[in-house]
Write a structure and sequence with these properties.
The protein has 10 helices and 13 strands. The protein is α/β, with parallel strands linked by helices and about 450 residues long. The relative contact order is 0.06.
């Protein structure tokens, strides 16, 4: 598009008093300086919206604060706060010592000066001091409010009411694997000599994500209630800030609501954490927590195994001693009885020997006389017995001769034999045409059956 010559010069002439951008920012800076002189210190209250700790880089820290009342609004005003490393280093150490970690949602009161950054026309704030005392008071109030809420819901005593098995050998462990606290706890179980089985649910135990991580690990183990007897939550020593996660509501509710007893072993530097207060039992260190579990199993082992075994062994020794004493007495009685019997039998044998010695000649004479008498009677008796036998033999011969077949045939009787060679005693089994043999005293004849008639009664 063509532009008429001289137009730009004319417009410049009409707005000769227009400010440049640098001039505009200069007047803004001057106006701000008039209202907020460079040395003027201001106290500002706001809710932390974001935190950018540049400790590993520049050493500075940058915060975005918003009004707590407008935290949910889309156009909530934001104050960008800068804390230079010379200020942030000591302040960060102080916060850690007090167990505080700046996180979104915290309401803080800070002191500093207003700052206008001309390259971006950005109004910010240079932090010189943070009211730690006020922040601690608010955190303490929040902790107290959380405890009141848990008490009202009956959660402070819920996990403590969970019965702890007398032999908790299946242990669920919420910890950060590889840390000193983890090694100290597991080392106690490993060195005990008992057969512990540890199910580890890894968790981040420090930092902004720690509360959610710990609560999630507890939930995972709680779902395996039939596989674990006890859950241990351990973390080695550290500052209050390092242990702040155990004061968080998600962790407290996860511990209180667990269907499995939860023991804590957190390296404390001061008061008990909320997790300790709602747990079934709290210990001051991971080592102590592991030792307590081992001691519980050891007590059961001593009461249920060692002591009964010792009692049995003692009673067995007493019973053995009594049995040996009784056996000794029995052996003594048996030996005395045996000696008495042997002595009595020896005396009886000696008496019998003496009697035999004295009576032997007389008995021998009587035996000779008896033998001579029997020898005298033996000859006649033997002859009489032989004669009697001969008479009986003759009688049997005569009887057998009377039943001799040939004798019966001589007396006129006949003997008929069938085709099968058997003597016929009747007509049973005979049929017309059967061949018969009839024996006589002087020979035999053969005949054939022409008919079979039953005997006619007379």
């Amino acid at each position: 598009m063509a532009v008429a010559p001289g137009v730009d010069d004319e417009m410049v002439g009409e707005h000769a008093d227009a400010l440049s951008i640098a001039g505009l920012y200069g007047e803004v800076e001057t106006a701000l300086s008039n209202v907020f002189p460079r040395g003027r210190q201001l106290w500002v209250r706001g809710e932390v919206h974001s935190v950018s700790d540049q400790q590993g880089r520049t050493g500075h820290c940058y915060l975005d604060l918003i009004d707590p009342e407008t935290a949910g609004e889309r156009q909530a005003p934001v104050l960008r706060v800068k804390c230079w490393r010379t200020t942030w280093g000591p302040l960060r150490a102080t916060l850690q010592k007090e167990g505080i970690e700046l996180q979104p949602g915290m309401v803080v009161v800070i002191r500093g000066t207003l700052d206008f950054y001309r390259p971006r026309a950005e109004v910010g704030f240079i932090l010189a001091e943070l009211d730690v005392t006020a922040l601690l008071g608010r955190l303490a109030a929040q902790r107290a409010a959380l405890l009141r809420t848990l008490a009202a819901e009956g959660l402070l005593e819920r996990n403590r009411a969970q019965p702890v098995p007398p032999v908790p050998l299946r242990v669920g462990l919420v910890a950060s694997p590889g840390t000193e606290g983890f090694r100290d706890f597991v080392g106690q179980l490993s060195a005990s000599g008992f057969s512990f089985r540890v199910a580890v649910a890894p968790a981040t135990v420090q930092g902004a994500d720690a509360p959610r991580s710990i609560a999630r690990a507890l939930t995972v183990l709680a779902r395996r209630a039939d596989e674990v007897d006890l859950i241990a939550v351990v973390r080695g020593g550290g500052s209050k800030g390092d242990l702040a996660a155990f004061d968080a509501e998600p962790v407290a509710r996860a511990v209180a609501g667990s269907p499995v007893p939860v023991w804590t072993g957190i390296g404390h530097t001061g008061d008990e954490s909320v997790a300790d207060l709602v747990a079934n039992r709290s210990c001051i260190t991971p080592t102590e927590c592991g030792r307590e579990i081992v001691q519980r199993v050891s007590r059961w082992w001593a009461e249920a195994v060692v002591e009964p075994a010792e009692r049995v062994a003692g009673r067995a020794a007493d019973a053995l001693a009594a049995a040996e004493h009784h056996n000794g007495q029995g052996r003594a009685r048996l030996a005395a009885t045996a000696r008495h019997l042997v002595e009595r039998q020896a005396a009886h044998l000696a008496a019998r020997v003496d009697s035999v010695t004295r009576c032997a000649p007389r008995w021998l004479d009587d035996a000779h006389a008896s033998l001579a008498g029997r020898a005298t009677r033996l000859g006649p008796l033997a002859l009489a017995h032989v004669e009697h036998g001969v008479d009986r033999l003759d009688g049997w011969r005569r009887l057998l001769a009377a039943y001799d077949v040939d004798r019966q045939l001589e007396r006129g009787y006949t003997l008929t034999i069938g085709a099968d060679g058997q003597v016929l005693r009747g007509i049973d089994g005979l049929a017309t045409g059967d061949e018969l043999v009839t024996r006589f005293a002087d020979g035999s004849v053969r005949s054939a059956v022409r008919s079979v008639d039953s005997a006619v009664p007379r």
